Amino acid sequence: MASLLTPRGPLTRSALGDSFTNTTETPVCLFNYVSNIKNHEQERDIIHTTWPELKREGKNQILLFAGAFNPPHQGHLATIRYFAERRQELGIVAMFLFTDPDETVRSKDKKFGEIIIPNELRNLMLSRVPELSQLIADQWLHLIVGGLGDTSNFLGGDKLSCRSAPHRDLNNWSPVDSFLITNARRPVNFYDSGQDLKPHDIPGCTKWERRLPRDNLEEEQERSVGMLWLCKALTIPGWPSIQFRATQSSASTGISSTRIRKIMWEAPDEELYDGLKDQVVSAELLVEWLQASRERKRVEDETVL
């Protein structure tokens, strides 16, 4: 689902904008909102943001939310909202949202994956959501672009399993201090929701240990974000800790990227908006791009004939 980072590894240092050199060819930067606004009357509503300010004392926990976002949909929005509403309880100073480059999305074998929404448009769709625009203005949410390397192996709730050990392909990101896993947005196969049972042990990890609340504040935090279980991933360099926040239910939206892409692929032009408006964010931008892409394809086909 997500990982908590501290600025010690080469790529996390680069993402935080310090003097360390990125190991990829494309420099990391913030998404340029103003240059992507067609109607310049809207520029006065845009607040120019900078990299987050980190605390000099204590740990700075950064939440990285990386993925294809092809397209950005209401499930993604619900995930961002969940962590934004609980950022104090989880101690998250900032969320970095990284949409995979076009070539990375193109390399994934997905049903109806022939449609690749340009990376710039995916970021623009996210930045146009009023709720996210406010988080950006508050300098908590940051849309980043550039070379973050391969994030497909990043450890998340969909990759942590009671059937296999955590992978060790995290050298570009190491050292990672800890991973945050929660079943609040998506079920995990190592915990049975609805029961106050211990999570199933993960191969290659130490046994789960329950972290009990130490005071009233932590009891309130537990009610908000779930019981805290801890283990160590022994198969990953540095033995990072895995923090699992166990909630008694998973609030999945039921949104399916595959079903959305099927609509994008099959729906007639006049039905695209109605089919997508309740599924994706900034549906009008996506529909405009889809219709323009289809028109270009029709012109190209006629030219060939």
**Low-confidence regions:** 6-27, 34-48
Radius of gyration: 20 Å
Bin the strand percentage. Answer: 15-25%
Distance between the termini: 48 Å
Instruction: Provide mean pLDDT, rounded.
Output: 79
How are helices and strands ordered from N to C?
EHEEHHEHHHEEEHEEHHH
Supply the number of helical segments.
Answer: 10
Number of strands: 9
Largest sheet: 9 strands, mixed
Q: Indicate the structural class.
A: alpha/beta
Shape: elongated
Question: How much helical structure, as a percent, in the residues?
Answer: 25-40%
Enumerate the strands of the largest sheet in spatial order, edge to edge or round the barrel: 2-5-4-3-1-6-9-8-7
Describe the structure.
With 305 residues, the chain is an alpha/beta fold. It contains ten helices and nine strands. The protein has helices at residues 10-15, 74-85, 87-90, 102-107, 119-127, 130-137, 216-225, 257-266, 269-276, 283-304, and strands spanning 2-5, 29-30, 61-67, 92-99, 141-145, 178-182, 209-211, 227-232, 241-246. Helix 9 (269-276) packs antiparallel against helix 10. Mean pLDDT is 79; it is low at 6-27 and 34-48.
Q: Could you name the key traits of this structure?
A:
alpha/beta, 305 residues, single chain
List the helices and strands and how they pair.
Elements: E1 2-5, H1 10-15, E2 29-30, E3 61-67, H2 74-85, H3 87-90, E4 92-99, H4 102-107, H5 119-127, H6 130-137, E5 141-145, E6 178-182, E7 209-211, H7 216-225, E8 227-232, E9 241-246, H8 257-266, H9 269-276, H10 283-304
Parallel strand pairs: 3-4, 4-5, 6-9
Antiparallel strand pairs: 1-3, 1-6, 2-5, 7-8, 8-9
